[in-house]
Amino acid sequence: MNAVRLPRPIVNQLLQLAQKSPDEEICGLISRDSRGFRNCYPVPNQAGDRKRFFALDPKAQIDAMRAMRERGEELAAIFHSHPDSPPLPSLADVEQHEYPAVLYLIISLGTKGVLEMRGFHIHNRTIEEVPIALQEGPVR
């Protein structure tokens, strides 16, 4: 499978969001248009146990989707972090994933003392890792 090329500014934003909330899973959406990945839309995590789970705030998710539509963008990826576990989909992640065509990004903070991010496609409980490559320069 070909690597997905994520713009460095979006990757940096994701890592900074995760570092700002090291004890809770952060989450949100990433958009794309005809030129590739465009914008990161952080969405508040409304899960009861935010250290181990994430649930996108419904109103903020709708607002983000509306903003994408108004900008001519579409949903490309859903991201969240794992504060103290590897960047691999959990059973809850697999069971709750509802967008099989969308990239699933997981950021890990606590496995090797190094920030790590991995991408996946999840469809019918099948997990396929997607290589990620950094695209240098600004989001075009």
From TrEMBL:
Protein name in the entry: Mov34/MPN/PAD-1 family protein
InterPro entries for the chain: JAB_dom_prok (IPR028090), JAMM/MPN+_dom (IPR000555), MPN (IPR037518), VirAsm_ModProt (IPR051929)
Gene Ontology biological process terms, A to Z: proteolysis
Lineage of the species this protein comes from: Bacteria, Pseudomonadati, Pseudomonadota, Gammaproteobacteria, Acidiferrobacterales
GO-annotated molecular function: metalloexopeptidase activity; zinc ion binding
Keywords tagged on the record: Hydrolase, Metal-binding, Metalloprotease, Protease, Zinc
Residue ranges of domain MPN in the record: 4-126
